[in-house]
Design brief:
The chain contains two helices and 13 strands, in the order ββαβββαββββββββ. By secondary structure, the chain is mainly beta. The strands form three sheets. Strands 1-2-11-8-13-6-3 form a seven-stranded antiparallel sheet, covered by helices on one side. A four-stranded antiparallel sheet has the order 7-12-9-10, with no helix packed on it. The protein has a two-stranded antiparallel ribbon with strand order 4-5. Bound molecules: N-(carboxycarbonyl)-S-(naphthalen-2-ylmethyl)-L-cysteine and fe (iii) ion. N-(carboxycarbonyl)-S-(naphthalen-2-ylmethyl)-L-cysteine (MD3) binds at residues 122, 124, 132, 137, 147, 149, 158, 160, 180, 182, 186-187, 189, 191, 193, 210, 212.
């Protein structure tokens, strides 16, 4: 019996689930290093606080975002892009903490992608009600590298479809500590997140934080 009163807080060993060709879900992979991960995240967030960005169409996103790494993903009325500097502070984005880089590398390797060296980590914060509409991640130039995503805090319903917006979607529940790798034929699949349900996570309280590691060039 390995059950835990606090769902998702501990897991004896990570499990692996194929999602699509080139995509694998590594449940619980981040749990063994969650303390170091959360400590590093707190430092990044102190230097570059979460903010609600505006889409080129003029909508304020319900998800709050920040970044670490050589470049960060930004959106404003001028468009989507990667930028070396945080537009709020005028400073370079905080460096990618080694514990984040190592987790992304290890996850990619478990997914069959060697030597993954992301130069950007987009950090998304969802509170109940926040969502992310179906989209493709295509602001990068190197689609041969995978994207690695790490879920922390409240669970979410993640959706992913095909290469066309109207392709049928599948739904998965992503919980605290789950890591997914999206490479090869899965790299440009449409994906999104359903509105976050109410809840309280033992460590992160009323929020979900998602990290996506990208190699942009
Ligand atoms: C499938 N974030 O930041 S992570 C994003 O949970 C984003 O915050 C979601 O989509 C979140 O762009 C989903 C899972 C994910 C990330 C990238 C993908 C799935 C993907 C790229 C290709 C296919
Ligand atoms: Fe995405």
């Amino acid at each position: 019996m390995t059950g835990d009163l606090f769902e998702g807080l501990t897991q004896a060993r990570p499990s692996r689930q194929a999602l699509a060709e080139g995509a694998v879900l590594l449940r619980g992979l981040a749990l063994a290093r969650q303390d170091a991960l959360l400590a590093a995240l707190r430092e990044v967030i102190a230097a570059a606080p979460f903010r609600h960005m505006v889409t080129p169409g003029g909508f304020t996103m319900s998800v709050a975002m920040t970044n670490c790494g050589r470049v960060g993903w930004v959106t404003d009325r001028r468009g989507y892009r990667y930028d070396t500097h945080d537009p709020e502070s005028g400073q370079p984005w905080p460096a990618m903490p080694p514990v984040l880089l190592q987790l992304a590398h290890d996850a990619a390797e478990a997914g069959g992608f060697r030597d993954f060296k992301p130069d950007a980590c987009l950090i998304n914060r969802y509170v109940p009600g926040a969502k992310m509409s179906l989209h493709q991640d295509k602001d990068e130039t190197d689609f041969s590298a995978p994207i690695v995503s790490v879920s922390l805090g409240l669970p979410a319903t993640f959706l992913f479809g095909g290469l066309k917006r109207n392709d049928k979607t599948q739904r998965y529940r992503l919980a605290h500590g789950d890591v997914a790798v999206w490479g090869g034929p899965s790299r440009l699949l449409y994906h999104g997140v359903a509105p976050l349900a109410e809840g309280e996570h033992p460590l992160l309280k009323r929020q979900r934080i998602n990290l996506t590691f990208r190699k942009t060039v």
